[in-house]
Amino acid sequence: MFIDEARIRIKAGDGGNGCMAFRREKFVPRGGPSGGDGGHGGDILMRSSLQHNTLVHFRFNPEHKSERGGHGLGSNMSGAQGHHTTLKVPVGTLVFDDDTGELIHDFAHPNEEIVIARGGRGGRGNQHFATSTHQAPREHELGRGGEARHYRLELRLLADAGLVGFPNVGKSTLISVLSAAKPKVANYAFTTLEPNLGVVQVGDFPYEKSFTVADMPGLIEGAHLGAGLGVQFLKHIERTSVLVHLVDVSDTAIVPDYSDASGAEATPDPVDNYKIITNELKSFDPALAAKPTLLVASKCDVANPAKLKKLAAMAKRRKLPFFQISPVTGEGIETLKYAIADAVALHRAIPMASEVSAFAPLPGTAGASDEAADDAPKNATAPAAMDNLYVRPRKHKSPYAPPAANSRGSRTR
User: Fold this and answer.
1) 270-284 and 305-318 are packed helices; what angle lies between their axes, rounded to 10 degrees?
2) What is the phi/psi pair of residue 90, to 5°?
3) Minimum mean pLDDT among 7-16, 23-32, 282-291, 400-409: which range?
4) Residue-level pLDDT at 81
5) What DSSP line would sit under 260-293, residue for residue?
6) CB atoms within 10 A of CB 370
């Protein structure tokens, strides 16, 4: 079950109460106050983990509490500290304050940890209230209450490229060919009811690079108004660097107007299909429609030549990268795979050392030519660029090394 939203109620541990006690011991007259402090309540922490990929464990367990602190004891003994509670969320989770709507944190990287509710402070014992004129105090403090919060968790998949288009245009088939993902594939609309994520490997070792692809459920006209499955899943491609827009150019394409209950098949205009999906993306978020887009003509093994020619002419006018593929026969898959990898490497916000393109030298480096890009193993600029990203640790002088000769503090004879 893919759950991408959840609401939780959390309560940090209360602080323990301070103790009111006096020292009573033989041969110790007037021992004085000896009440210990209460222990602090446990905090509630949240940490991003790669072991989770949905929020299903919060959907059916929305309440979380931390342990309260122990009460103070006599003989100036403090109460035990309350144990912290750690909640693990998938990478890509956004935490919102459910009362104010404020964004608290964005878990964009693994093993990030924040405190979302602090435990209460323990109360002070009567030993802290003794003065020269008040030597037998009976005052002590109660522990303070821990913080209580209501949060809304929203998961947004961290994908480099997102597949968009009408239902039944071949998005699930394409991601199953590009990666090891095994989504449901069938010959009817809305086969995909939840996003699918796949990892794509490009190139050979040691010049290989990888990127992630997200397969979105199909969109139809009026999706931003709730038609079909709506646009609730489009939030998962807001983090993507590149959009891959698939258009069906066969004669069995799904009709964009779903008001016809008969479900009769027709041959819609592929250019109109592209404009409809683009308008839906723009209605959801204008920044989403402005992302770099690769236009892909799908099902080219049974393509209508007139449709294919019209779609290619539109891509040329709009200066969009255009590709013709057939996931069934494998036509154009390798070309599209490398094109997506290059586009992701170009538009990704924070490139990593392992993602430096081994097929195209970095701008401004020696040997940045088409010949070097075509022959990756002979291109020495890419490994050099990767070496420059590695920061070598500094050499620290050992504190146990013997002092140098004639240095200050050395023993001379």
Assistant:
1) 50
2) -70, 155
3) 400-409
4) 93
5) -TT-------HHHHHHHHHHHHHHH-HHHHTS-E
6) 8
pTM above the 0.85 mark?
A: no
Q: What pLDDT, on the 0 to 100 scale, is given for residue 173?
A: 85
Mean pLDDT of 63-72: 94
Q: CB of 216 within 8 A of CB of 278?
A: no
Task: Report which of 407, 341, 380 is spatially closest to residue 208, judged by C-alpha positions.
Answer: 341
DSSP-based three-state secondary structure for 215: strand
- Rounded to the nearest angstrom, the gap between the alpha carbon of residue 113 and the centroid of all alpha carbons in its chain is 13
Write out the residue limits of the CATH 2.70.210.12 domain(s) in the chain.
1-155
More confident residue, 151 or 302: 151
Report the C-alpha gap between 362 and 371 in whole angstroms. 14
CATH architecture of 161-355: 3-Layer(aba) Sandwich (3.40)
Q: Residue 290's closest CA among 237, 334, 358?
A: 237
Q: What is the pLDDT of residue 115?
A: 94
Q: How far apart are CA 19 and CA 27, in angstroms?
A: 24
Nearest 5°: phi and psi at 85? Answer: -115, 130
Q: State which CATH number among 2.70.210.12, 1.10.150.240, 3.90.1150.10, 3.30.70.1140 fits the domain covering 1-155.
A: 2.70.210.12
